[in-house]
Write a structure and sequence with these properties.
Layout (H helix, E strand, L loop, with lengths): L7 H28 L9 E4 L3 E2 L3 E8 L6 E6 L2 E6 L6 E7 L3 E7 L2 E9 L13 E6 L6 H11 L5 E7 L6 H9 L3 E7 L14 H6 L3 H14 L3 E5 L21 H14 L6 E5 L23 E8 L12 H15 L5 E8 L6 H13 L4 E8 L12 H13 L2
Parallel strand pairs: 2-8, 9-10, 9-16, 10-11, 11-12, 12-13, 13-14, 14-15, 15-16
Antiparallel strand pairs: 1-3, 3-6, 4-5, 4-7, 7-8
Length: 411
């Protein structure tokens, strides 16, 4: 293109001015960007897993808003632990708190604090409970380790220990001593049969017992227990209203009235030895459809110091069983005991629940609430054995927690 004289210089001046303006604007932008403050970092904070508790509590400290990938410390009084923040400026650390303190976390130039207060545990009541806690374990009274374990699980040492002996064993004086050394008493189950022999054992028929065939043996027990001299609960031929033991009526050649005759005879022979330290416990199973009526089996108030029931919530652990709440399980039986033996103390001598078919923790809570409302129930003995079902207190952690809470809250 042909430029006219005098215009080329003017065009060059404009172009130069424009360039200079662009350079100036660019420089100003660069300067402004360089002077802009960096984005503000979130303030450092910490959160505690618990803000109060007993001395010695382990507290988890969670922090955020700290410099990234930075080493730091968490301090509680004289205790100090190291920590390192993550790529997002967070951390988590555990520290043991010995007293009421301010817990402080520091990383780089960032610091955050939170307070922890030591709370003294509530005083433990030393008043005796109206309902005594008892237990039966696989090893029996001689298994001190098992009883210690139960005490740890339940939060209380049992004051009654369940024991079993058949008609071939002497009075278990060493076991009675072991239980007494623990500050407890024995619920001694005396079974007229040979263990493992089944329901049909004619040698132990009720009419033979009533006829005196075992009197020498009965006197041995009476003299041994009397000489020992300390309190003992003796439950002879328990769960007699069922059909699974040879001392039940309707099995093993036994007829109506035979049980009462045998029970009264055993009581009288043992009492004739002068043993006054024995509390006699008459103990049927909870009544069920087809069980022998309790009226037919009760030996009379003069032969009984306490009355008792055995009852288990089998849940759906068996093909024939269903879930039973405590009141449904024990209510009718307790009513019958009150009618047969008015004024006599009542003991739940064996009980437990399966985990199958419902909530065992809830059942345990309901059981303690139910028995606490029965003013004549003086003891509850838990069958802490994994047998036909897992009857143990700690079959699950939730069941163990419910038991400890229910036991602590009982009447």
């Amino acid at each position: 293109m042909l430029l006219l004289p005098g215009k080329s210089a003017s065009f060059r001046d404009v172009r130069g001015t424009t360039a200079r303006l662009l350079l100036l604007v660019t420089a100003m932008v660069v300067l402004m960007v360089g002077l802009a403050p960096p984005p503000a970092q979130a303030a450092a904070t910490i959160a505690l897993s618990s803000t109060s508790g007993a001395a010695g509590t382990t507290v988890t400290v969670t922090g955020s808003g700290f410099p990234k990938r930075t080493k730091g410390t968490v301090v509680a009084g004289t205790t100090r632990v190291a920590m390192t923040t993550t790529a997002s400026g967070t951390f988590q650390a555990s520290i043991v708190v010995a007293g009421s303190v301010t817990i402080t976390a520091t990383a780089g130039s960032a610091t955050a604090s939170a307070s922890f207060a030591v709370v003294e545990p509530a005083p433990v009541s030393t008043e005796p409970r109206s309902i005594r806690f008892g237990v039966g374990t696989n090893g029996g009274p001689a298994a001190g380790g098992e009883l210690d374990e139960v005490a740890g699980i339940a939060g209380e040492a049992p004051s009654i220990v369940l024991s079993y002996k058949d008609f071939n064993q002497p009075a278990p004086i060493a076991e009675l001593d072991a239980v007494r050394a623990r500050g407890a008493e024995t619920l001694l189950t005396w079974e007229p049969w040979t263990w493992g022999g089944g329901v049909s054992q004619p040698a132990y028929s009720l009419d033979r017992i009533a006829a005196g065939d075992f009197d020498a043996y009965l006197r041995e027990w009476g003299m041994a227990l009397g000489q020992w001299g300390q309190p003992v609960y003796l439950r002879f031929a328990h769960e007699m209203n069922g059909d699974w033991y040879p001392w039940a009526e309707g099995v093993n050649g036994n007829g109506a009235g035979d049980y009462v005759a045998a029970y009264q005879h055993v009581h009288d022979v043992v009492a004739s030895t002068g043993a006054t330290n024995i509390s006699w416990v008459w103990n049927p199973n909870v009544p069920y459809w087809g069980s022998t009526p309790l009226d037919q089996l009760f030996p009379g108030a003069g032969y009984v110091d306490l009355v008792a029931l055995d009852g288990y919530n089998w849940g759906t652990s068996q093909s024939w069983s269903t879930w039973q709440e405590p009141q449904a399980l024990f209510g009718e039986g307790i009513a019958q005991l009150r009618r047969l033996a008015p004024g006599k103390p009542i003991m739940i001598a064996e009980t437990a629940s399966s985990e199958l078919g419902g909530s065992k923790p809830q059942w345990i809570s309901s059981l303690f609430s139910y028995v606490s409302a029965q003013q004549d129930v003086v003891a509850l003995v838990w069958f802490h054995i994994n047998k036909e079902a897992d009857w143990r207190i700690n079959s699950t952690t939730a069941s163990a927690d419910a038991f400890a809470a229910g036991l602590a809250a009982r009447r």
